TrEMBL record:
Highest taxon, organism lineage: Eukaryota
UniProt protein name: GIPC PDZ domain containing family member 3
Residues of the PDZ domain: 118-185
Gene this protein is translated from: GIPC3
Native source species: Bos indicus x Bos taurus (Hybrid cattle)
Family: Belongs to the GIPC family.
PANTHER family, per the entry: PDZ DOMAIN-CONTAINING PROTEIN GIPC3, RGS-GAIP INTERACTING PROTEIN GIPC
Region (Disordered): 1-40
């Protein structure tokens, strides 16, 4: 029979043993704190001056003006020296023109001011044959010249030339649609003067260029699956590449911008397509366009054609 002293000694021994670890269900809440979300990696882009330079790296921009400022800082030039940028090609290639989106792997080439030239033009027809775009930072330039047009017969005028003045009236700071309107309103049979600034060119950009050039990135860089969307207002955002429908609809709207207004602007076309997704009728679409892009004062017949073109693109892409 166990004595009282033995029972008390066994009880004291039990109290001195360590408590068992708590079960997962009983573990304190602090130990189950979820891991902090992984930060998005820094977006760093490689860049060169199109006529030749070392490679620089830029980051931290949200719109085109800030992009130009970053490029200028990287190469020790003024932002106003930059006329426009192309992606993955140093050539004056309007198909590679930087618009509102940059692929996360794209290589940016900045085309800077070269020689200034003046040409005299006599407007013998209503249309000069020019398609105007702008760089989003104050310079309008020639994106396309129509075959057989008035301008096409003037050899000194080239695609990529920035239009600095019309009849000595500076248009620096004007948007492309404003410049196109000025040119349309010039009287017929009366000469006028264009002051143009051509992009600075390297020697190997004058003639044909082989693939063994010092720009190996031209044929190798791909855009990846995401793009950085630059916006005129608000922060830049990383988005998936446009869908087949968005690309086709934007192309059709850009064609209409050229035929109606004499401008090409993929970013503007993309914004119009994006606006159409929020509407169910052409009337609602027109109201939304007025609120978002009222400064363009699009005519009603143009808005109807844009709505129809977007609908056709949707049907074509299934």
């Amino acid at each position: 029979m166990e004595t009282t002293e033995a029972r008390e000694a066994r009880g004291a021994e039990a109290q001195s043993l360590p408590a068992p670890p708590p079960s997962p269900a009983e573990a304190p809440a602090a130990s189950q704190t979820p891991a902090a979300p992984r930060a998005r990696p820094r977006l760093v882009f490689r860049t060169q001056l199109a006529h030749g330079s070392p490679t620089g790296k830029i980051e931290g921009f949200t719109n085109v003006r800030e992009l130009y400022a970053k490029i200028a800082e990287a190469f020790g030039i003024a932002p106003t020296e930059i006329l426009f940028c192309t992606l993955n090609s140093h050539k004056v290639d309007m198909q590679k023109l930087l618009g509102g989106q940059i692929g996360l792997e794209d290589f940016i080439f900045a085309h800077v001011r070269g020689e200034t030239k003046e040409v005299e033009v006599t407007k013998t027809e209503d249309a000069l044959g020019l398609t105007i775009t702008d760089n989003g930072a104050g310079y309008a330039f020639i994106k396309r010249i129509k075959e057989g047009s008035i301008i096409n017969r003037i050899e000194a005028v080239c695609v990529g030339d920035s239009i600095e003045a019309i009849n000595d009236h500076s248009i620096v700071g004007c948007r492309h649609y404003e410049v196109a309107k000025m040119l349309r309103e010039l009287p017929k049979s009366q000469p006028f003067t264009l002051r143009l600034v051509q992009p600075k060119r390297a020697f190997d950009m004058i003639g044909q260029r082989s693939r063994s050039s010092k720009y190996p990135m031209e044929a190798k860089v791909s855009s990846g699956r995401e793009t950085l969307r630059l916006r005129s207002g608000g922060a830049a955002t990383v988005e998936e590449v446009p869908s087949e429908f968005e690309e086709e609809a934007s192309r059709r709207v850009d064609d209409l911008l050229e035929s109606y207004m004499g401008i090409r602007d993929p970013e503007l076309a993309s914004t119009m397509v994006e606006t159409s997704k929020k509407t169910v009728s052409v009337q609602e679409f027109a109201r939304h366009l007025d609120s978002v892009l009222g400064e363009f004062a699009f005519p009603d017949e143009f808005v109807v054609e844009v709505w129809a073109a977007i609908g056709e693109a949707r049907e074509a892409c299934g």
